[in-house]
Amino acid sequence: MDNWTFGFTMVIVGMGGTLVVLSLFAILMVILKKIFPASKHKVSE
Question: Residue 6: CB partners within 8 Å, gap ≥ 6?
């Protein structure tokens, strides 16, 4: 495998890994919002 092929492979794996991690964070945040819903209380002073 020459340098160009290795570099292109690393770019694809890096971008794919980033998108997978971001989608996992998005799913985790949706799950956490369902478990801990935002409260509607406002603090008035």
Answer: none
